Amino acid sequence: MRVAFVLAALQAGGAERVVAEVSAGMVAKGWSVEIITFDHPDDPIYHPLDPRVSCTRLALPNQGGGVRGAIRSIRRIAALRRILRERKTDTVIAFLTKINVIALAAGWGLGRSIIVSERNNPLRQKAHPAWNQLTSLLYARASRVVIMSERSRQALPRASRARAAIIPNPVRPGGLRTVSRTKAFVAVGRLTQQKGFDILLEAFAAISPGLPDWQLIIFGEGPDRDALEHQRAHLGLQDRVLLPGATPVPGSWIDKTSIFVLSSRYEGWPNALAEALAAGLPAIAFDCDFGAAEMVKDDATGVLVPAEDTDALASAMYSLALDPHRRARLGSTASQQMICYSPDRIVDRWCSLVETA
Question: Rounded to whole angstroms, how far apart are CA atoms 37 and 180?
Fold first, then answer.
């Protein structure tokens, strides 16, 4: 099989990690795999790629909306179409909504099987109406649409739901982790409104007087940094809340974590939560759409609280911080149940999908 993955860039992120894992599994089977991105050739690659995977970077990064954004999208479609015409690719696999639309438009009439992968919750993402119309139109032409949970099927255009295939993200077993000596709640993700770190700050502010030896660390970078730093100062938490940016090594935040917290307003599949559970960390998660409830069974493999409920989140954080035996029990059970998301199993599901698309 000859497979081409298409995504925006090779930076830190869940989609990028999945492409690295799945492409490595495919070349291990003897398949020919290429990754096509729109970032610059000298941009750093956060998740290491198998050296047998070829990489083409088109140097057409996203540059906002409006007329300039539309022109850039047309240039992306044209550049990708040229590449697909040159390659003898059997299947194209695109990741994330806008890249899915670009890949479907670029492959129109070329006779390639095109699989698109929806990684987030498009019902909650802000998008121009034109993008929504293009998504509905072009998703109907996709060979298959990959989603990560049954609950996320409702987010697809109605005409695409019957062709949806559920494949969650792969998660490597956590192995033995170093127990954090620092009592720390840890959250991980891009600093955006979606991740709900503003809610998390409010929850931590409510319990911090009763937990004077605990701190909150939020790993990640993004456009809401200034707002979060201002909120931290307003709450008087400068010495208790750290915003160190993205970790230089994938997953290195795990050894700094006592309790992992997912405060997202919505998700497609919370990768950081999956990594935390696989590593045997006790976790608290909002029951947001989508993914958290598939991984966290309340008081069995973690703590699940109503989405966007600040008081419930604060209560869960406080009670778990005071109960080390419960933390140990939840972490142990969580790591055992994450075996079903092992890379070998998930790669096999992707390969079966490609072979039948």
Answer: 37
pLDDT digits (tens, 9 = 90+) for 80-125: 999 999 998 999 999 998 999 999 999 999 999 999 999 888 777 7
Among residues 125, 69, 74, 119, the alpha carbon closest in space to that of 93 is found at: 119
| Phi and psi angles of residue 266, each rounded to the nearest 5 degrees, phi first | -155, 160
DSSP 186-223: EEES-SSGGGTHHHHHHHHHHHGGG-TT-EEEEE---T
* Gap between the Cα atoms of 147 and 135, Å rounded: 15
The amino acid at 115: I
Maximum pairwise Cα distance, the chain: 63
Range 102-106, long-range pairs (CB < 8 A, 24+ positions): 102/6, 102/73, 102/76, 102/77, 103/6, 104/138, 104/139, 104/141, 104/142, 105/77, 105/134, 105/138, 106/76, 106/77, 106/78, 106/80, 106/81
Q: 108-114 contacts: CB < 8 A, separation 24 or more?
A: 108/141, 110/81, 110/84, 110/85, 112/84, 113/143, 113/354, 113/357, 114/141, 114/142, 114/143
Q: Is 17 left (phi over 0), alpha (psi -120 to 50) or beta?
A: alpha
Residue type (1 letter), 85: R
pLDDT at 178 over 80: no
pTM: 0.83
CA–CA separation, 74 and 70 (whole Å): 6
What is the phi/psi pair of residue 130, to 5°?
-65, -40
Q: CA 239 to CA 343: how far, in whole Å?
A: 39
User: 198-207, pLDDT tens digit by residue?
Assistant: 999 999 999 9
pLDDT at 156: 84
Q: Are 175 and 313 in contact (CB under 8 A)?
A: no
CB of 83 closer than 8 Å to CB of 117: no
Q: Work out the average pLDDT over 256-269.
A: 95
d(CA 354, CA 25): 13
* Amino acid at position 266, single letter: Y
